[in-house]
């Protein structure tokens, strides 16, 4: 799973995101070719490598070559829908603009369609939003996380006059997201940046657990600040937890009972830690069974394939579970009829179970003629004489 973590120590904007994606490896030729499919004109895309306090970053600027008119939400959605871009890119871009429009509508007490996008409806916002959605798609990034957002402080000038930082629409978009103002008197989180991050990010704060960094890109902002005005975009992946467990289940009411045994054997061979059946009553009072499988998450695909192949089920459900495992060890004891392996379980340093191996007891029972329980009791007695069971 390819993941990006945004380190927003200097805020976030649309052009910073786009610059970071280019620095991560998004080919500029592909970006320009994609933008050429959008039915918009009157702009020039400028990119260059800059340094911000010694950090090399990619700066992206959308320079207008003719006056742009204000656009409504329907205008922007029409531009995106007719672009011929992949479905996932269109859906992502639409979701971002819908979220942005909802924030603007609330701030101005208007309907979605009545909202005039002003600055964020200009060509540069369309390029930033669609370009970011396209870049994430092209780089195979499936999840996005972000740090707390440095929003800046002071006031910003816009079409409605001077507005406090964060601007009202930005503040609306940042609800439920951790952010801070700081001492820099600039707008560091723009409405476009806030719309993109609030729509796409799955979490905010520290890096997600099991995140492994693979490469880093920097997208430059416009301002020259006391701190590096860059967005650090860390590309990596989430390593699967080897100890993460799942319970995988399905309900079955049309399977020959004789087929359960070989199916369960193959599930164990596929990596299942435990497999069991629970009698249930399904719809129309039909007797059935729930097949439950405990397996490591890394074995999900293999176990699912076996379950769907070896049973009559046509679907599975699964969910993560946690467990507490006692420390286990094994020793061998001598009985009057031979050796028996014994499992010792401990929890918090204390012995909680002493269990003779059933197969060993059964084998000795067959050879000596004594009942299995007698052999088991002898093995237990021998085990409790050893210091390991104290």
Structural overview:
The structure is a single chain. It contains eleven helices and 18 strands. The protein is α+β, with helices and mostly antiparallel strands and 390 residues long. It has three domains: 2-238, no CATH class; 245-321, 2-Layer Sandwich (Alpha-Beta Plaits), CATH 3.30.70.1380; 327-389, Ubiquitin-like (UB roll), CATH 3.10.20. The strands form six sheets. It has a five-stranded mixed sheet with strand order 9-4-1-11-10. A four-stranded antiparallel sheet has the order 13-14-12-15, with helices on one face. Helix 3 runs antiparallel to helix 4 (87-108) and helix 10 crosses helix 11 (372-384). The longest helix is centred in the first third of the chain and has 22 residues, at 87-108. The radius of gyration is 31 Å and the shape is elongated.
With strands numbered from the N-terminus, the spatial order across the biggest sheet is 9-4-1-11-10
Q: Distance between termini?
A: 47 Å
If helices are DSSP runs of H or I spanning 4 or more residues, what is the number of helices? 11
Overall strand count: 18
**Oligomeric state of the chains?**
single chain
Task: Let me know the largest β-sheet.
Answer: 5 strands, mixed
Give the CA-based shape: elongated
Give the helices and strands as they follow along the chain.
EHHEEHHHEEEEHEHEEEEHEEHEEEEHH
**Helix share, percent:** 25-40%
> What low-confidence regions span 5 or more consecutive residues with pLDDT below 50?
none
Number of domains: 3
Overall pLDDT score: 92
Portion of residues in beta strands equals 25-35%
Cα gyration radius (Å): 31 Å
Coarse structural class: alpha+beta
Catalytic activity: Ni(II)-pyridinium-3,5-bisthiocarboxylate mononucleotide = pyridinium-3,5-bisthiocarboxylate mononucleotide + Ni(2+)
Keywords: Lyase, Nickel
InterPro entries: Ni_insertion (IPR002822)
EC number: 4.99.1.12
């Amino acid at each position: 799973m390819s993941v990006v973590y945004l380190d927003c120590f200097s805020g976030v904007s649309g052009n910073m995101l786009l610059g970071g994606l280019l620095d991560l490896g998004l080919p500029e030729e592909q970006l320009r070719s994609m933008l050429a499919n959008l039915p918009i004109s009157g702009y020039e895309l400028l990119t260059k490598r800059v340094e911000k306090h010694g950090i090399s970053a990619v700066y992206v600027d959308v320079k207008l070559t003719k006056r742009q008119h204000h656009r409504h939400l329907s205008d922007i959605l029409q531009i995106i829908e007719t672009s011929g871009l992949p479905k996932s890119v269109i859906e992502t871009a639409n979701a971002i603009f819908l979220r942005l429009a909802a924030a603007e509508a609330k701030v101005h007490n208007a309907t979605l369609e009545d909202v005039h996008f002003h600055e964020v409806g200009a060509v540069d916002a369309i390029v930033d939003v669609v370009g970011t959605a396209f870049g994430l798609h092209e780089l195979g990034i499936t999840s996005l996380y972000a740090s707390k957002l440095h929003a800046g402080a002071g006031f910003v000038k816009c079409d409605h006059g001077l507005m406090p930082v964060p601007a009202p629409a930005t503040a609306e978009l940042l609800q439920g997201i951790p952010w801070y103002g700081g001492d820099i008197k600039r707008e560091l989180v723009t409405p476009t940046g806030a719309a993109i991050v609030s729509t796409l990010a799955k979490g905010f704060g520290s890096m997600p657990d099991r995140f492994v960094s693979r490469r880093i890109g920097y997208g430059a902002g416009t301002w020259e600040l006391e701190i590096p005005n860059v967005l650090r975009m860390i590309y990596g992946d989430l390593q699967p937890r080897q100890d993460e467990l799942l319970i995988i289940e399905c309900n079955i009411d049309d399977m020959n009972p004789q087929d359960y045994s070989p199916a369960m054997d193959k599930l164990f061979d596929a990596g299942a830690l435990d497999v069991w059946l629970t009698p249930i009553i399904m719809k129309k009072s039909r007797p059935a069974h729930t097949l439950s499988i405990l397996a490591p998450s890394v074995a999900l695909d293999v176990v699912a394939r076996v379950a769907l192949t070896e049973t009559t089920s046509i679907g599975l459900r699964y969910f993560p579970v946690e467990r507490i495992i006692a420390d286990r060890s094994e020793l061998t004891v001598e009985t009057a009829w031979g050796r028996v392996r014994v499992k010792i379980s401990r929890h918090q340093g204390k012995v909680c179970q002493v269990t003779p191996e059933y197969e060993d007891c059964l084998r000795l029972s067959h050879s000596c003629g004594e009942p299995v329980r007698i052999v088991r009791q002898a093995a237990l007695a021998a085990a409790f004489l050893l210091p390991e069971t104290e």
